Amino acid sequence: LGGPDPLDYVSMYRNLGNPALNVPEHWHYVSFGLSDLYGDNRVHEFTGTDGPSGFGFELTFRLKRETGESAPPTWPAELMQGLARYVFQSENTFCSGDHVSWHNPLDNSESRIQHMLLTEDPQMQPVQTPFGVVTFLQIVGVCTEELHAAQQWNGQGILELLRTVPLAGGPWLITDMRRGETIFEIDPHLQQERVDKGIETDGSNLSGVSAKCAWDDLSRPPEDDEDSRSICIGSQPRRLSGKDTEQIRETLRRGLEINSKPVLPPINAQRQNGLNHDRAPSRKDSLESESSAAIIPHELIRTRQLESVHLKFNQESGALIPLCLRGRLLHGRHFTYKSITGDTAITFVSTGVEGAFATEEHPYAAHGPWLQILLTEEFVERMLEDLEDLNSPEEFKLPKEYSWPEKKLKVSILPDAVFDNPLH
C-alpha cells in the first residue's frame, strides 16, 4: 500500500500446540507479501499459475508462549520485515536448510538465541493460489554454537537434532527466547556422535555465502589498462557497459543452479540469503551450467589466467575459510564467496570439480568479476595448518595477512570498514 515495509501483513495466532506430541502452546506468526497477493504486477510480476507466486514463499515463526501472556509479542513481525527487506533488495530467496547469521538476540534482549535456521513449517503445506505456488518457511531461532554446527555440517542435520530435544524446539521447532543452553550443552553426546561424525562423513553442504570480500590481480602493474574488464579492488572498478554488467549479474545470479545430478556452478538462481546448499552432494562435483552458458556469449567476457592473486575477506568471511577447505574441497567440492556489494565472486575449487575454468596448470583464472582458485589436496592441508588461528577469533587482531609466495597467493583478513568504504 505504499508504506515503507515490504510485507503487507503479519498474522499472529495463538496455537494450542499438541499435547499428544509434546508440543507446547505457542504464538504462530505468518507473513503476507513475499508471495504475490494481488496478481496485478503491483508488487510482483505475474508469471502464471504453475510457477512460484512472487518469491514463492512466505515466512512463519513459532514463539513459545510465556505463562500469563494474553497477546503475542510484536517483535517477530519486525524480524520478518527485516528478512523480507533483504529478499526484496537482493532478490535472494530462502530455502529449507538455510541459515541466517544475525549476530544479535532476535528480540533485542540478552538471549543466546541470536541466529536463524529455516525449514518447512510443520503444519502449513505448500498451497496453489491463482497467482502461483506458495511454500511456508519457518524461522527457527538458534544459538551461535548451533549456527556454526549448521555451517560446518548442514542445516537439515541440526534441525533434526533440535526436533529431538524438547527444550530446544521439539517436533514443531518452537523458539524459546529464554533457552539458556545449546543442544550440545543439554546433550553433550550430540556434538561428538552426530555432528562431528556427520562432518567427517558428509563434509559441509554449504556451497556458498554472501560475504564482504574482494580480489586483486597481482600478475601485472595496476596502471595496465589494456584489459578494460579487469577488476581493481581498492579503487573504483572499471566501468562496464550497462548491457555487459546486466549479463554478468544475471550469470552470477543463475550460475549455481542445482540440477538433479550434482551440478553446482558459480552463483545460484536460488541463492538463499546468499547461501547455497548442495541438494545432491557428490564426490564428483561439476561447475557446468546450461543456463550460464546460454546467457553470456563467450566473446563478451574472455577467461584470463592470472599468475598471482590477493584475496581479501572481512573477519566473518575469513572464519569460513577452514570450513571451505576442510568441509568442501577435501570432499571434492567447491565453495563460492559472492560479494554483497557488487558482482565480485571468488570460487575455490578442488581438482575433482568438473567444468571449472581454473586448472592445475593455471590455478588462478578470472571470468569477468568471477575468480576461480584451484587448490590441490596437498596445498589445502598446508593452508589448513597455516590458517589454524582463524578458528580462534577472540585472539585475532586485524589486519592479518597470510602468504604462500611459491604459490603466488596472498590472503588478507581486513576490518569491515575496508569493504564498507572501498575508496579508502
Description:
The chain has 424 residues and is α+β, with helices and mostly antiparallel strands. It has two domains: 9-202, no CATH class; 207-221 and 247-254 and 302-423, Gyrase A, domain 2. Helix content is 23%, strand content 25%. It contains eleven helices and 18 strands. It has helices spanning 75-90, 144-152, 155-164, 183-186, 189-202, 242-254, 290-295, 315-318, 321-328, 377-386, 416-420, and strands at residues 9-15, 26-32, 52-64, 99-100, 115-120, 127-129, 132-142, 206-211, 213-217, 276-277, 303-305, 309-314, 334-339, 345-350, 364-367, 370-375, 400-404, 409-414. Strands 1, 2, 3, 4, 5, 6 and 7 form a seven-stranded mixed β-sheet that branches. A seven-stranded mixed β-sheet has the order 10-8-13-14-16-15-11. A hairpin with a 2-residue loop joins strand 15 (364-367) and strand 16. Helix 2 (144-152) crosses helix 3 (155-164). The model is unreliable at 224-241, 251-274, 276-284 and 288-300 (pLDDT under 50). It is found in: Cytoplasm; Nucleus. This is Suppressor of fused homolog. Residues 217-245, 263-290 are annotated as: Disordered. Residues 276-287 have a biased composition (Basic and acidic residues). Residues 193-413 form the Suppressor of fused C-terminal domain.
